[in-house]
Write a structure and sequence with these properties.
The protein is mainly alpha-helical.
C-alpha cells in the first residue's frame, strides 16, 4: 500500500462514513473506476495489511465521533451507572444508554446473518449503485411520510438497530438508514443523527476489530507500510471529524431529501457507467 492510496481511502472513509451517502458504495465505485482507467486493481490483493488498514481508518472515524461527542458520552455513561446505583431510571441520558444497549444486539445478529450473502456484492458496482438508489428512496420518503414529532423510545431504538444491521449491504448507508428510520418514526433530524452516531460506537468498534483480526496474519505486521497507514488514519480522522461537525449543523437547515437527490444522481450515473463499461 502506498501513501496516496491510503490518503485517498482515508478521505473517502472520512467523508462518507457519517454522511448518509454510503461509504461502502463510494469505496467500491472508486476502486472499480481505478481498475477501469488503469487496468489494474487499486489494491493488488486483500491481505493482512489491507485488513489492518481497514481497521485503522474505521477506528479513525470512531475517534472523531468520540471527540466530537465526548461530553455526551461522559454524561450518558455517568447517568447510566448512577441510575443503576440509585435505581433511578428516569434520566434521558440513562434511557439513551439503555436504547443503545437494546439496539446493538439486533444490529449484530442481522449483520452476522447477512455478512456472507452480501460479501460478494462489493465485486459488482452495478448492484451497489442500485442499493445507493434504494438509500435515496429511504431518505426521501422518511421525510415525506414521517410521523408527528416525538422523543426516542424503545420501539424506535429497536427498529433503528435493525436498520443499522441492514446497512451491511454495500450501498445502503448506515447513517442514512438509522437517521431515516428515526425521522420516519417522528424524531427530529438532529436528535436522530446524534443517536445514530452514538449507537455506531459499539458496532464500529466490534466490526472493525473482532472479525477482521481473526483474518489477519499477525506475523506479517513487521512488513506493513506504517507511513501510509499513519497518513490514512490522519486523513480519515480529520475529514471524519469535520464531516460530523458540519453535518450536525447542516441537518438543522436542510432535509434528508437533499442527500436523497445525491444518492439518486450518483447511483444512476454509476449504474449507467458500469453497464456501458461491462459491454465494452
Amino acid at each position: 500500500m502506498q501513501v496516496l492510496q491510503a490518503v485517498f481511502v482515508g478521505a473517502v472513509q472520512g467523508i462518507s462514513e457519517f454522511l448518509p451517502i454510503s461509504s461502502s458504495a463510494h469505496i467500491v465505485f472508486a476502486q472499480s473506476l481505478y481498475k477501469i482507467t488503469t487496468g489494474v486493481n487499486f489494491l493488488n490483493e486483500v491481505g493482512s495489511e489491507e485488513i489492518f488498514f481497514d481497521i485503522i481508518v474505521h477506528l479513525a472515524t470512531l475517534l472523531a465521533v468520540f471527540i466530537f461527542f465526548r461530553k455526551d458520552i461522559f454524561e450518558i455513561l455517568k447517568a447510566f451507572f448512577l441510575g443503576l446505583k440509585n435505581k433511578d431510571y428516569t434520566s434521558p441520558d440513562f434511557k439513551t444508554a439503555v436504547f443503545i444497549l437494546a439496539a446493538t444486539p439486533i444490529t449484530c445478529i442481522v449483520a452476522l446473518l447477512l455478512k456472507e450473502p452480501t460479501h460478494a456484492l462489493v465485486e459488482n458496482p452495478k448492484i451497489v449503485s442500485i442499493f445507493l438508489i434504494v438509500t435515496g428512496f429511504i431518505l426521501y420518503f422518511s421525510e415525506k411520510l414521517k410521523s408527528k414529532n416525538k422523543d426516542m423510545n424503545l420501539k424506535t431504538a429497536l427498529w433503528t438497530g435493525l436498520a443499522q444491521g441492514l446497512a451491511v449491504f454495500p450501498g445502503l448507508s448506515r447513517s442514512g438508514l438509522t437517521i431515516a428510520t428515526q425521522v420516519f418514526m417522528g424524531m427530529d433530524r438532529v436528535k436522530a443523527a446524534r443517536f445514530s452516531f452514538l449507537m455506531s460506537i459499539p458496532v464500529i468498534l466490534g466490526a472493525s476489530m473482532a472479525y477482521p483480526l481473526l483474518e489477519m496474519d499477525l506475523s506479517q505486521m513487521a512488513n506493513f507500510n506504517y507511513k501510509a497507514i499513519f497518513w490514512g488514519f490522519m486523513t480519515s480522522f480529520i475529514v471524519g471529524y469535520l464531516c460530523v461537525k458540519y453535518f450536525m449543523k447542516l441537518l438543522g437547515k436542510v432535509t434528508l431529501k437533499c442527500f436523497s437527490y445525491y444518492c439518486f444522481v450518483v447511483g444512476a450515473l454509476m449504474f449507467v457507467l458500469f453497464s456501458v463499461c461491462h459491454r465494452l
